[in-house]
Design goal:
18-stranded antiparallel beta barrel, two-stranded antiparallel ribbon, 20 strands, 55% strand, disordered N terminus
Length: 396
């Protein structure tokens, strides 16, 4: 394709190169198995092969376009539907998950309109399955200045990880007109911090503050890590979940001593009599996905999924070895809830996670093989939950 270049009056190139700027893709092969002794006893298993294709055009006077197509195919290997893990999904899914126009002006930032991935603490792609969650709306990103940047979004509809089409029903099974959010971020001098305001229409207003400070020490090059987070929610509008009065506090402490990082996270959800689930978090776009930003959220569940106020703690270790080609993650979390989740429960729920990834090199660079195993248990209740996820991925 011939190269074309136009210049604006300010000297910025209006169009350069061919029509397509980037073309990329990702292959995925996932095999999930879950053993649940709770409300869905027995073994559920799903296999899926697929991936994504992404294309983006060069900019013409700042305007460009992009699209991403996703596919997931079980190849007839799943016992659908009674013994299938439908969260993978277990059935065939094809979706044009991204289709957007992007306008960028030097020094002013970029505005993206259409179907797109959107990343924020309480609404994000939750990309641990075949197809990520995507959002339909307008998203603005400012340039970074003096360490500060701004994101603003108005989201009208969304598409979950197993859906083929965008809709207005969220993970709390509520039909709403979406949400609006504004987030301010800072990064510099060892500190990363952000403040986000969300208005989840007909449900809640939320303010979320988080920060982490990395302090380099003279002891063997170790780095001390300190973090905090706070979430406040109140009901608004038609208040389709009733009264909401949520206050969540979090602290994180840890140390990074290459190649090992160890952290201890704490969360406290203050009880509120008469409020939604006794004061628990309202999270319309992460609930049941276990992809919220709380320090104690684990592979399969977290405090949000416990539907109760209470306390939680999580000890986590991350180890890199063999020239950064092997990553090992292990964690233990305990959830001390104010309201028992299952009849017969005699103790606090806990989760143990083990996660191992091998990153190939040489001609297979980019290929990764990952196995994640999670054990979640409610003592005294027949609700032991074991989840094994084998994940193979290759970007191209």
């Amino acid at each position: 394709m011939c190269a074309v270049a136009l210049l604006t009056a300010t000297g910025y190139p209006a169009y350069a190169g061919g029509f397509i700027k980037t073309f990329s893709g990702k292959l995925r092969l996932y095999d999930f198995q879950r053993i649940n002794q709770g409300n869905k006893p027995g073994t559920l298993r799903s296999f899926s092969l697929g991936g994504s294709l992404h294309a983006e055009t060069n900019a013409f006077y700042g305007l460009s376009a992009g699209a991403t197509f996703y596919a997931a195919e079980p190849l007839g290997l799943n016992d659908f539907p009674t013994k299938t893990d439908n969260s993978l999904p277990g059935n065939t899914v094809t979706s044009l998950s991204e289709g957007y126009l992007n306008y960028a002006y030097p020094g002013a930032g970029a505005l993206r309109v259409g179907d797109q991935k959107f990343v924020s603490p309480w609404a994000n792609p939750s990309d641990s399955r075949m197809v990520p969650a995507t959002f339909q709306g307008l998203v603005y990103h400012s340039p970074r200045r003096y360490g500060f940047s701004l994101t603003a979004a108005r989201i009208f509809r969304w598409k979950g990880r197993t859906a083929e089409h965008f809709g207005t029903v969220n993970l709390l099974k509520k039909n709403t007109t979406g949400f609006v959010t504004v987030g301010a971020r800072y990064r510099g001098h060892g500190l990363s911090a952000s403040f986000w305001h969300y208005r989840f229409y007909s449900l809640v207003d939320a303010e979320y503050l988080q920060g982490k400070y990395a302090l380099h020490t003279s002891y063997r090059g170790a780095t001390a890590l300190l973090g905090f987070q706070y979430l406040h929610e109140t009901d608004i509008g038609s208040a389709r979940l009733g009264k909401v009065d949520t206050n969540v506090y979090g602290l994180l402490a840890g140390i990074r001593l290459a190649p090992l990082t160890v952290t201890l996270g704490l969360n406290h959800i203050a009880p509120s009599v008469g409020a939604y689930h006794g004061g628990d978090v309202v999270s319309p776009y992460t609930h049941s996905y276990a992809t919220d930003p709380l320090y104690t959220t684990s592979m399969t569940q977290g405090m949000v999924e416990q539907n109760s106020a209470g306390n939680a703690w999580k000890l986590k270790g991350v180890y890199w070895g063999f020239q950064h080609r092997i990553r090992m993650i292990a964690s233990y979390a305990q959830y001390n809830v104010d309201q028992t989740v299952h009849p017969g429960q005699t103790g606090n729920a806990h989760e143990i996670d083990v996660d191992a990834t091998y990153f190939f090199a040489g001609r297979l660079k980019g290929l990764s093989l990952r196995d994640r195993v999670g054990f979640f248990d409610y003592p005294g209740a027949p609700a032991t939950f074991i989840y094994n996820r084998v994940m193979v991925q290759y970007p191209f």
